[in-house]
UniProtKB/TrEMBL annotation:
<feature type="domain" description="Transcription regulator AsnC/Lrp ligand binding">
    <location>
        <begin position="6"/>
        <end position="76"/>
    </location>
</feature>
<dbReference type="Pfam" id="PF01037">
    <property type="entry name" value="AsnC_trans_reg"/>
</dbReference>
<dbReference type="InterPro" id="IPR019887">
    <property type="entry name" value="Tscrpt_reg_AsnC/Lrp_C"/>
</dbReference>
<protein>
    <submittedName>
        <fullName>Lrp/AsnC ligand binding domain-containing protein</fullName>
    </submittedName>
</protein>
<dbReference type="InterPro" id="IPR011008">
    <property type="entry name" value="Dimeric_a/b-barrel"/>
</dbReference>
Length: 78
């Protein structure tokens, strides 16, 4: 399993709805509200052979209220 970090920018007033939908999906390992350009930061684990772009597109980006996403791939933990 690979950890992937995704930052989400939500439509005004939709951050809590997006967070609730993510929590209900049981796909995220960790979920945080953040300051700055993005409203939410989530950590997900995907199988090594999983197509990350397709996973994000199919399971995360389809949640209503998301305006923009930024996905960060990880290589190793220190």
């Amino acid at each position: 399993m690979k950890p992937i970090f995704v930052q989400l920018q939500c439509a005004p007033g939709k951050t809590y709805e997006v967070a609730d939908a993510l929590y209900a999906s049981e796909l995220v390992s960790e979920l945080y509200s953040t300051s700055g350009d993005y409203d939410l930061l989530l950590k997900i684990y995907v199988e090594s052979e999983e197509d990350i772009g397709k996973f994000i597109n199919d399971h995360i980006a389809t949640i209503p209220g998301i305006v923009r996403s930024l996905t960060t791939l990880t290589f190793r933990a220190f």
